[in-house]
Every structure is written in structure tokens, then in C-alpha cells.
């Protein structure tokens, strides 16, 4: 006999899952990255190609993750996949990174950007205080009700996409065109192969990070074998189109010298498109929309810590859930780590550090698609990655190229990332020894 609707566990629908993916992707990166990119590159064609290439990487990754999620439908994301494909130690390292960096750092970045945008509109606000207040408020919402958190996600994300569409359409109609050329010439193609392009791709890849967000909630998605691949693909395609359109408008409407080095590029571009008064209003709107990004990460991240607690006796306390099925202890741990990032580091330091370590883990996960097909050819796969083996190979080639340049040009942030992995390995082996005793 089926349970009454009032007591059935709440399941995440295709719409909610897609909203979570979009909300995780759209936010910090697209509203902050262009200012860093135009410092070393002024070609309109090359700058837009950054966002297209970043979208291709994300789309190929989503196709690969869709197969893994359908074949191994359990919450946990890379933690679950790497444990099953390679070894529990590598899965633990992935979970360690997700628990300590994967969601806490991007949440901190989103709130830092939110604070910066808000301070541009209301100079009397203290950005760091606002960042801390937003994290604490949204943690309270998600720790209280899973259903309320999901409904909040759908509503805020719908508003976010609608505002971005208005921004793009208005930019085409109202902006004064700048002397920038978007059609390629020979030098533009050469620039795509330069180290400058590869380093700029670091920021773009971070802007697209979040395309895999729904796999962390696999156990809570309705019919995950069918819906999860569709969620990943739909969310990624929507964001790719939004990103290319939005960055075209930024470049089309605003002089590059005014964008260079600026964190709040959306506010700067809005001021050129609509004038100072409406520009301030749009800056305020963007600050509010970043709440959606923070909300989605606070919603999804603690599920990783919860699954680790279920598998590892030393972390069993973090697997405890409330009467509503919410991993409150894991959520509180993530909140504390987020506040540490906000209060101790700069935006760029956190972005490069998080970008390197997260790209390394997604690289290993997509590589695992080949390993899993070789080791377990008879495993039921309700969905197979489109374009295999070309799509995973393209993802690995582009992601590997980016990782090499991060190691070469940003060694300090890369070493911090590797040190985080080393600390996780120490914790894992200590935990194994204690368990054996």
C-alpha cells in the first residue's frame, strides 16, 4: 500500500534538479571573470571563444557524468564514483575535497562577489559582514525544511534566468556599440593557442563549475536513471547560451579598459548600457541573484559529507540527519568552512585554489568512464554518454591542458591544492589504522 502523500519522502523533480544545476553554474564566475580575462586579451573573437570552449568542456563532462550517474545511482558524486571505479582511498580524497573545498570555497566566492556588488550600489555596506550574514541566513532556511529549500531554489533560479535574458536583450537594443571585432582574423586563431588563453580558461572553467551539481543528490531525484542525464544536459545547455550571450553584451557595450581588472563587471556594463541610475539598480539585482548560487551550494554540499559519514566510522556523526531528513551537522560544518574562507582569503586566491583542485577531480572522474567500461562491461547502463569515446577524450584533452598551465603559471595555488589532497590522505590512513586497532 503506497504511503499517503503527506508522509512520502520528498523527491527532487526534473525541474528542481535543472534549477539546481543552473543556479550552481550561473553566478560568481560569469559576473566576475571577464575583468580578469581582458587584462591579457582584447580580441572579441578569442574572448567569446573562451566561453564557447568552456561550455564544450562542461557539456562533454555532463554527458560523461550522466552515464556514471545512471549506472551508479547513489548520492555522493565523485566520492561515490571514484571509490567504485578506482579505490576507496581516492574516493575519500574526493569526498575530503568536496567537504573542505568543493562547496565551501565556491559558496565563499559567491558571497564575496555578492558583497562587492552590493557595496558598489550601497557604499555604506561592509561587504564581508554582508557575506557572513547571507551564509548564516540561508543555512537556517535549508536546515529547517528540504521542501522549502527546493521551492526557494526553483523560484530564485527562475528569476535569475529571466533577469539575465532581459539584460542580454536590452544590451542588444540599448547599448552603444564599442569598437571591438567579433569575427576572427588570423591573429585571433593564433591567440587561442597561447598560454594567455589557457590561463584565462581557468576562470571560465570555474564559471561553468556546477554542471555536475545534481549528481550529488542522486538518491533524492525522482527516477534518477532517466531524469539525471536530462537534468545535467538541460542545465548545461541553458547556461552555455546565457554565458555566450551575456559576455557578448558586456564586450559590445563597455570599453575594455573599463572592464579590465574589475570584479563587478556586471555593474560596470549595466552602467554603460542603462546609465548610472539603472546601472546601480541592475548591480543590486545581480547581488540578489547571487543568493541563488549560495543557496544551491548550501543545499547540495552537505550531502557529500553525509555519505562520507555513512561509509566511514570515524565520521559517522556527520551522517546524522534531522527528523526532516536533512544532514544538519554536515551543513553546519560546511558553513563554518565557508566562513573561514570569507574571513581569511582574497577572492582570486580562493578561485585559483578551488579551480585547480576541482578540475583535477573531474578529470579523474571522466577518465574513470573508460576504466569502468573496461572493468565492468556488463554493468547495466540505462544511459550511455553520447559521442563516446570522442566526448570524454575532448573533455580530458581540454581539462588536462588547463591543469598543466595552472601548475606552470600559478604554482602557489596549485601547491595549496595538492597540500589539501595530502592532508586528506593522511586523515584517510590514520582512520584506517584506528579502525584496524
UniProtKB/TrEMBL annotation:
The chain crosses the membrane at residues 12-39, 45-68, 89-109, 129-145, 152-172, 192-219, 231-252, 326-345, 351-374, 386-408, 414-431. Its main location: membrane. It is a multi-pass membrane protein. The keyword Lipid metabolism does not apply. GO terms for molecular function: L-amino acid transmembrane transporter activity. GO terms for cellular component: membrane. It comes from the Bacteria. Keywords: Membrane, Transmembrane, Transmembrane helix. Coiled coil: none annotated. InterPro entries: AA/rel_permease1, AminoAcid_Transporter. It holds the Pfam family AA_permease_2. It is found in: Membrane. PANTHER family: AMINO ACID TRANSPORTER, SOBREMESA, ISOFORM B. This is Amino acid permease. It comes from Hymenobacter elongatus.
